[in-house]
Every structure is written in C-alpha cells, then in structure tokens.
Design brief:
It is a single chain. The protein contains nine helices and 20 strands. It is of the alpha/beta class. The chain has two domains: 45 residues, no CATH class; 299 residues, Aldolase class I (TIM Barrel, Alpha-Beta Barrel). Helix 2 packs across helix 3 and helix 7 crosses helix 8.
Amino acid sequence: MSSVVPGRYWRTLDDGRVLCELCPRLCKLKEGQRGFCFVRRNTGGGMVLTTYGRSSGFCVDPIEKKPLNHFYPGTGVLSFGTAGCNLACRFCQNWSISKSREYDTLADAASPEAIARAAASTGSRSVAFTYNDPVIFLEYAVDVAAACHELGIFTVAVTAGEILPAPREEFFSHMDAANVDLKAFTEDFYKRLCGGELQPVLDTLEYLAQETDVWIELTTLLIPGENDSEAEIDEMTRWVVKRLGPDVPMHFTAFHPDFKMKNWPPTPPETLSRARRVALDNGVRYAYTGNVVDPEGGSTYCHSCGELLIGRDWYRLSTWNLDHDGACLGCGTQCAGRFNGPPGTWGARRLPVRIGE
C-alpha cells in the first residue's frame, strides 16, 4: 500500500510555503522540505504524510508496559510505531525509531484493517500507538483506531502531548486511553533537553481530563540533577491533583544513560520512591515507580482503606482484590480506571507479530 497520503492541518502562506499546524513547532516548509518530525512534507504545495501504512514493527506487549496500570490490567496490547518525532529529547530511549531518518526502519506495511484483524487474532484487548509519538502520524492513527473500534478493540496513545488544539480534538476523539509523558515541570527542561515546550503539554492534559472520557495516566522519567528535585516533584504533583484530579495515576520511572546523555548516572531507586511518597502525600491516589524492581511501588492500593488491590511483579499480576467493576473487596471503594471482570492473563510475554499484505 502507498506510504504517502494527503496530510491535514496546514495552510499556504503568502510566500508559497506551507505552514504545518499540527504541533506547536509550526514548521514552514518550502516545496520538498520535511518538517522537524521528518514524516510530514510539502509536496506540490500541499502537506503529505510520508509514512502512512508503514511501521517499525509490531509486537504484543502487556498493557502495563505502556505503562497503563488501570486500563484493563493483565491484557495484551498490539504495539507499533513509525519513524520520526516532533521532539528532540537528548535522553530518548527509543531513539533508533524516533530519530530514524531511514525508511529501512519501516520494515512492516499494514493497512488499518490488517492491524485491527491482527489485534483480534492475537487476543489483544487494545492497540497502542507508541515507540514514537503518534501525533505526527495522526491520519494513519485515526484510521487504525476506526478499524479497531469496528472490531471492539480499544486504542491507546503513548504521547508527549505536543499538539495544537484542532488536531488534538480529532486525534483524542479516537483514543480510549493515553499515557502522556510529563517530562518535567519547567520550561527550561523542555527547551534545553527536549527542544519543546511545557505549556502545550499542560494544555493537552487539562483538555483530556476536563473535556474527554479518555483514560489518562502520566509518566515522568526522572533524570538525576535535571528534573528530580523534591521541589519540582512537589509542584508537579500538586498541579496534577488540582488541575487533573487525584485519580490520575502517575508513574515515576528510572533513567538509564542513552542517546545523547550517556554520561549521566542512572536514577537511584530511592529517588523514585521519594517521588512516589511526595505524590501520595500531595493527594495523588495512585503513584508508581518503574524500570526498577519494586513490588510495593508497582502495586495498586485502595486509597480509602489501604488494601492491596493489584499486586505487580514487573508486568505480572500477583494479587487481585477487586470485584467485577473494579471496587475494593475490603471496603467497596471504587478504584479509578477501566475494569471489566477478572484480570487478563497475558503476563509479561512479548510477542513479535508480522503483518504482511
């Protein structure tokens, strides 16, 4: 199938260049030029998406790996990405995909319908747009989501949230859940280490929490000396409770040296535990640690009576104390999230999938 299709959210400027209005970068492109994301290009005076129907690979993961701890726990999610990204994070841990400038990266071709059928045939409860930010391949993601919903398959966006209001409304209207990277809580961090902006991310989060039914969870990769101070985590978590509500889960995950930050030390486990404590103290009801062995920090507890609701050992569920609708078996308090009966049994498996057409 063709990998080039007309793109949306652009207009022509007086000088003939095309202005991309998908994300806050607002790239102005001459004929033949690509945007910062690499995948959107001015062709014939109009915007095209050059990676439609092309993927860097498909794999069924545990939903907890996205990470989503409150969205049909224990189920499998068919995950895929394309190439490119609209940020330039110096610490990117998927840089071989997100920073790819080679079409060889896009080894698998698949129509939206084929992806939906593959999800169904592998027993996946959902499909995740991940590995690189799906907002840059909005047209493809929206078509895949529509095909998935036809078969009763949920859709998940793993995104940094750097998107403008009009495309944001269209994109998330097709998503059932999202894990949003709240990379830090200062504009300096976003500008210096990501080449982006914090405020559009906060705008996206408030939109999701206040104007949609999308289930959202947040992830912050804590980098020693950059975004891990107690003061910054305190400010961030207070904002989350005030603007998004106490039921939005937060994941604090460990950095490991990678890409352009190989000389930084890895995150000490105690930094993650401290961040989790700050979040809980500030009213976040569900706070987690990630990328470390920490059964307590990875498990879900009732915010009312303290009962262990979902025990986790990495991506394996070890305990389940919720009723059919997700209420605590101890006191009856509802656990926020999306639940439907007993947990899934996917476990920690990772299953590569080839989709040939």
